[in-house]
Amino acid sequence: PIRARDGLFYHVVPLLLLKKEMPTIYYFCLKSFLGFWGGYISLVAMFIALIFAVLYLTPWVGNMAK
User: Fold this and answer.
1) Number of folded domains in the chain?
2) Where are the transmembrane segments (predicted)?
3) Which SS3 state, helix, strand or coil, does residue 8 take?
4) What percent of the chain is helix, strand and coil (3-state, nearest 5)?
5) Burial letters for 54-63: b for 16+ Cβ neighbours within 10 Å, e otherwise?
6) pTM of the full predicted structure?
7) For 12-58, what is each residue's pLDDT tens digit?
8) According to the model, what pLDDT value does residue 49 have?
9) Residue 56: inside a domain, yes or no?
10) Which structural domain range is residue 38 located in?
């Protein structure tokens, strides 16, 4: 069976193995337009979606409209 602490092994070990590759990956992300701005754009989009989800799924807006 997979234990919860095994997740640490699967996440940390690839990072240790990729340590010498990381500057190349960061350089590529900074140079590519989507790599740099895509993260910020998706973060803002998820934040807006969260706000709309909270507003539409709570009865708070409906009670204010009455």
Assistant:
1) 1
2) 25-58
3) helix
4) 85, 0, 15
5) eeeeeeeeee
6) 0.41
7) 666 666 666 766 666 666 666 666 677 788 889 999 999 988 888 88
8) 93
9) yes
10) 6-65
